[in-house]
TrEMBL record:
This is Bifunctional protein GlmU. GO terms for molecular function: glucosamine-1-phosphate N-acetyltransferase activity; magnesium ion binding; UDP-N-acetylglucosamine diphosphorylase activity. Catalyzes the last two sequential reactions in the de novo biosynthetic pathway for UDP-N-acetylglucosamine (UDP-GlcNAc). The C-terminal domain catalyzes the transfer of acetyl group from acetyl coenzyme A to glucosamine-1-phosphate (GlcN-1-P) to produce N-acetylglucosamine-1-phosphate (GlcNAc-1-P), which is converted into UDP-GlcNAc by the transfer of uridine 5-monophosphate (from uridine 5-triphosphate), a reaction catalyzed by the N-terminal domain. It is found in: Cytoplasm.
Length: 455
């Protein structure tokens, strides 16, 4: 049976108190709606329809993709009305309804649900709740068959005591669904066209309503305010943390670890507290990451060590190299094997060959550094002349003295040495010593100034 998915995402989300449409608020750095779309894609539907309204232009702009059909719901007249806006575009046998603000729903749960949707059976995802306040209640007859859903505001005291709540997620045969939608009325406590009313209509038409439940209630939890958003975030992060631990990562504290993107990990990786991994991060075997590190779009090869408080973005750290504490690797930082980058070092577009050492307080930008070279403390490449960026090339086995200014473009040949405190403005040929600093003078009989006494 062919499948289409309709995602409802038109609501305002007043309780977010935000200029940003609710469904664009991020969980793990990605809009909630994008999570739902990705999960929907995993089910290989023929088409995904996204019903948008509040902030429609921004939502469409952010999430535009070839496989998405955005449908505008001008006025938010209810969940049934929202699905009806997508009706003219539907052609598959089966339709699954999802919600843009329910981002943690998992594919296996939806697969279990959809397996129960047949031409003669509607499938509804329900959840058993400690406190079902606000949810539609599932009304079952004595034998346990679902009869209807009653919204909180329309429910009697007796019905409100029911703890089986409606998640809103359902799968139904398309033709039947479209018929029921066209028959919805808004004569209820909220004056809305309720999607939930299709349940009683299905039963009236002789269909059975089958139910399934999520593995955990959080899967179907929506985010109506920022507190709930933070709860979804933490739950999501713990889920990622558990998966990584199952793959052989030691997390010192899974509650203080965040992933905002795609992470691949090897075995025996150890990650200390307050580490954030963002974008595409690849971590090979035996890597150690110290506390308070931010690592984005980077690759850490086998045995690399990232020490506390380091900030990496677009970096490649080669095998057995070590970085930090307090290092900043900006895009284009490439460390080959056994490179040492110490504290308060900033690299940008810098290629460091095997065994290079940059121990302290240095900036290398637009630079190539040959194998085994040592860069003294306090050295900077002056790569920018106020208009253009220039390269610094340092050969193999070079020794750059402390506190050098290397004014690019400049080449320093293999085996060359520069004196401490030098400003290097011209080539230092291979094997030579370059010294570019004022010669020391000694002034005899120098008197220090004396303090002037105030009367
Ligand atoms: C809905 C269900 C309720 C269920 C609950 C679960 C109905 C009538 N009620 O109630 O049974 O327990 O969800 O959270 O369906 N939306 C639109 N357009 C609209 C109205 C809503 O796109 O015109 C979207 C909202 O953006 C939201 C979702 O549909 O993502 C649910 O709408 P909401 O108004 O929050 O429904 P509830 O009252 O919570
Ligand atoms: Ca809701």
């Amino acid at each position: 049976m062919s499948l289409e998915i309709v995602i409802l995402a038109a609501g305002q989300g007043t309780r977010m108190r935000s200029a940003l449409p609710k469904v664009l608020h991020p969980v793990a750095g990605k809009p909630m709606l994008a999570h739902v779309i990705d999960t929907a894609r995993g089910l290989s539907p023929s088409r995904i329809h996204v019903v948008i309204g509040h902030g429609a232009d921004l939502v469409r702009e952010r999430l535009q993709a070839d496989d998405l059909n955005f449908v505008i719901q001008e006025q938010q007249l209810g969940t049934g009305h929202a699905v009806a806006q997508a009706a003219p575009f539907l052609s598959a046998d089966k339709v699954l309804i999802l919600y843009g603000d329910v981002p943690l729903i998992e594919q296996p749960t939806l697969e279990r649900l959809m397996a129960q949707a047949t031409p003669e059976q509607l499938a509804l995802l329900t959840v058993e709740l400690e406190d079902p306040t606000g949810y539609g209640r599932i009304i079952r007859e004595d034998a346990g068959e679902v009869q209807a859903i009653v919204e909180q505001k329309d429910a009697t005291a007796e019905q409100r005591a029911i703890r089986e709540g409606n998640t809103g997620i359902l799968a139904a045969p398309r033709e039947r669904l479209l018929g029921w939608l066209s028959r919805l009325s808004n004569s209820n406590a909220q004056g809305e066209y309720y999607l939930t009313d299709v349940i009683a209509m299905a039963v009236g038409d002789g269909l059975r309503v089958a139910t399934a439940q999520p593995q955990v209630a959080m899967e179907t939890q929506g985010a109506n305010d920022r507190l709930q958003l933070s709860e979804l975030e933490r739950f999501f992060q713990l889920r990622v943390a558990r998966r990584l631990m199952a793959q052989g990562v030691t997390l010192i504290d899974p509650a203080r670890f965040d992933v905002r993107g795609e992470v691949s990990v090897g075995r025996d990786v150890s990650i200390d507290i307050n580490v954030i991994l963002e974008g595409q991060v690849e971590i090979e075997d035996d890597v150690q990451i110290g506390p308070n590190c931010y690592i984005k779009d980077s690759t850490l090869r086998r045995g690399a060590i990232i020490k506390a408080n380091s900030h990496l973005d677009g970096a490649h750290v080669g095998p057995d190299s070590d970085v930090g504490p307090f290092a900043r690797l900006r895009p284009g930082s490439v460390l080959e094997r056994q490179v040492h980058v110490g504290n308060f070092v900033e690299l940008k577009n810098a290629h460091l060959q095997d065994g290079v050492k940059v121990g302290h307080l240095t900036y290398l930008g637009d630079s190539e550094v040959g194998a085994r070279s040592n860069i003294g403390a306090g050295t900077i490449t002056c790569n920018y002349d106020g208009a253009n960026k220039w390269r610094t090339t340092i050969g193999e086995d070079v020794f750059i003295g402390s506190n050098n200014s290397l004014v690019a473009p400049v080449d320093i040949g293999a085996g060359a040495t520069t004196g401490a405190g030098s400003t290097i403005t011209a080539e230092v040929p291979a094997g030579t010593l370059g010294v570019g600093r004022a010669k020391q003078r000694v002034i005899e009989g120098w008197k220090r100034p004396e303090k002037i006494k105030k009367s």
